[in-house]
Amino acid sequence: MTKVSLADAPKTMTVPLLDLKAQYATIKADVDAAIQGVMESARFIGGPEISALESEVAAYSHAAHGVGCASGTDALLLALRALGVGPGDEVITTAYSFFASASTIALNGATPVFVDVEPDTYNLDPALLAAKITPRTKAVVPVHLFGQCADMPAILAVCAARGIPVLEDAAQAIGSEWQGKRAGEMGVAACFSFFPSKNLGGVGDGGMVVSNDAALADRIRLLREHGARPKYHHHILGVNSRLDALQAAVLRVKLRRLEAWHAGRQKNAALYRELLAGTNVGLPLARPEARHIYNQFVVRTPKRDGLKQHLADSGIGNEVYYPRPLHLQECFAALGNQEGDFPVSEAAARETVALPIYPELTSEQIAYVSAKIHEFLGPRAG
Ligand SMILES: Cc1ncc(COP(=O)(O)O)c(C=O)c1O
């Protein structure tokens, strides 16, 4: 039993979508000390904070190797490049994700090939995957959207039979699991984002690739530093995409709290489920096989635009992830995809909205958000 009910909801209050100031207040002493440590060491590029974070994130993700990058986007870009993705290749991903899941394929010169998502998890639908594979398919990139793993065993089964590597876009899903296996140990590699809104967020941009494949990790390491080893001796064309030591030092402090933060988000999700059960809103499915870490808590209604406005008018932060599916983005028009090609993604883009779920939310805030949803949508039909 929860201690809070809809009747306890305050009449009015403000609930931001995310409150990083509240998070900072809980870790200020440690974060400030970590930043000061880097300043005093003057080791800003490379150094012990980076290698320690790489080992810690890899271990946390049940992977042997971690390679810090400047962003989650670069992690995907370099991991795909290290897999040999280039012009003439096709790479399959979901039509419903953040832009970088597909842009990194195209930026490597390959063609993004989209697959629709499951209507209840918004993750790549494995039943639709095999039909998209051609002799040019070089890799498959499932996205663990909103913090819940895609059905990796089903995806891996399709790909393993054809020798196609699976790269996990785990930007939103560090610490998520499928049947006890963690994001990072299921595919050939996994890419994380440390964008500030992620469950493990830095104080700026950052990302990491983790992998159990030593040769692949080594190639990504080479690519992120101009393809040079040693310095000034360039074997391949690489880029400058390093994670910096200030980010690593802060992320190491935060990594120690990550499990508690996941638990806070899971508790908040459970309270939403309880308080929203009686109203006419679609709740996100948490698959029993999955450990959902709730980077986002996304609800659904055909009256989404009205609900979004009602929440905003009530002082509640919310966001649509994502209002336009990837196949309908202008920059991908040349791929020839049409409206109607991926109907589940298109409906999700019209009907979903993310609610505040961050760990520092109070139960009164959750009751308030829930009460406002009841107020707008009324009691559950049927
Ligand atoms: C699914 C997904 N992939 C890739 C990225 C790219 O990460 P970054 O913003 O760190 O470049 C994000 C970030 O929002 C994401 O959500």
Overview of the structural elements:
The chain is built from eleven helices and twelve strands. The protein has helices at residues 20-41, 48-60, 72-82, 100-107, 152-160, 214-224, 245-255, 258-276, 304-313, 343-351, 363-377; strands at 65-69, 90-94, 111-115, 137-141, 167-169, 177-178, 181-182, 189-193, 207-211, 290-291, 297-300, 352-355. A four-stranded mixed sheet has the order 1-9-8-5, with helices on both faces. A three-stranded parallel sheet has the order 3-2-4, with helices on one face. A three-stranded antiparallel sheet has the order 7-6-10, with no helix packed on it. Helix 2 (48-60) runs parallel beside helix 7 (245-255) and helix 3 packs across helix 4. The relative contact order is 0.18. Bound molecules: pyridoxal-5'-phosphate. The site of pyridoxal-5'-phosphate has 16 residues, from helix 3 and helix 4.
